[in-house]
């Protein structure tokens, strides 16, 4: 019960990593506000939580929405934890063909959203003496070949933003860290493809399953694997940890499993 009596915000909480993290924080005593553009998914998560999860329709590319989400949690007794996590694949265009508009849209969704999440959480946390912020980066921030360029650059930005914000906000007793997921079975691979239900679940499982063959730990990554790392970073167990990241990727960034 590391979050008993605490309030947390989770963006992208209607699905995947955000959903698993919201449920994990609630399991450990928190009351959670999830922000997402998926209203049906968001309401579904809220309904299964005995009133411990509140859903607020939030588009993280709209700064006013982020501000309102942080304010809602704060108004209920003070904002303690923020997980800036919402995202999607972004532009798949190569660097020699991408348009300025696609570039900007991807950065707004994946990087500016995190900057604005920190921007609007920090003053509220400062006012109550501190807090913990965790941002979702990716193994795409650490190496080539994991995701398209615009996405990977945004995630590398999230990592550097995390270290800079940690340095700036330490004087207010606010810790800022990131998590770098590897291939995790969620809807991110299939969102926008127009497939639903069983077919979508099969496709989601297949992609993380294929990646697993190249990993030292040869199973598909689960949203709960990331939720556990986020819960650690957000908790007082990590009270001496700031400006860094945890990679949760089945070992894929260290190279293939050795056969000798
Ligand atoms: P997911 O599709 O299951 O969940 C993402 C959630 O973000 C969805 O509920 C979606 O509706 C929401 N979202 C998308 N755009 C939004 C917007 N503009 N405003 C608010 N909400 C929005 O995918 P996921 O894998 O759980 O993704 C969560 C985070 O993890 C993302 O930042 C993603 O880049 C990152 N990530 C995922 C993986 C992976 O393999 N699944 C790997 C590395 C990083």
From TrEMBL:
Keywords: Oxidoreductase. InterPro entries: NAD(P)-bd_dom_sf, SDR_fam. Coiled coil: none annotated. Belongs to the short-chain dehydrogenases/reductases (SDR) family. PANTHER family: DEHYDROGENASES, SHORT CHAIN, ESTRADIOL 17-BETA-DEHYDROGENASE 8-RELATED. This is SDR family NAD(P)-dependent oxidoreductase. It comes from Sphingomonas oligophenolica.
């Amino acid at each position: 019960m590391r979050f008993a009596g605490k309030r947390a915000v989770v963006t992208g909480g209607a699905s995947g990593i955000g959903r698993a993290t919201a449920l994990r924080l609630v399991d450990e005593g928190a009351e959670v506000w999830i922000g997402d553009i998926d209203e049906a998914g968001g309401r579904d998560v809220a309904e299964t939580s005995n009133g411990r999860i509140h859903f607020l329709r939030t588009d993280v590319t709209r700064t006013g929405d982020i501000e309102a989400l942080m304010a809602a949690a704060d108004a209920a007794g003070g904002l303690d934890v923020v997980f800036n996590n919402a995202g999607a694949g972004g532009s798949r265009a190569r660097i020699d063909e991408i348009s300025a508009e696609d570039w900007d849209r991807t950065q707004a969704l994946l990087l500016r959203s995190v900057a604005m999440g920190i921007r609007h959480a920090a003053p509220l946390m400062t006012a109550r003496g501190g807090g913990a912020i965790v941002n979702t980066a990716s193994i795409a921030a650490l190496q080539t070949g994991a995701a398209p360029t615009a996405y990977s650059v945004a995630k590398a930005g999230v990592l550097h933003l995390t270290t800079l914000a940690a340095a700036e906000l330490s004087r207010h007793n606010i810790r800022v860290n990131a998590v770098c997921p590897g291939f995790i079975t969620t809807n991110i691979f299939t969102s926008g493809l127009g497939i639903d239900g069983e077919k979508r679940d099969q496709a989601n499982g297949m992609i993380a399953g294929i990646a697993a063959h190249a990993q030292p730990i040869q199973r598909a990554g689960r949203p709960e694997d990331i939720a556990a790392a986020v819960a650690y970073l957000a908790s007082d167990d990590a009270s001496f940890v700031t400006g860094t990241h945890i990679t949760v990727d089945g070992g894929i960034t260290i190279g293939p499993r050795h056969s000798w």
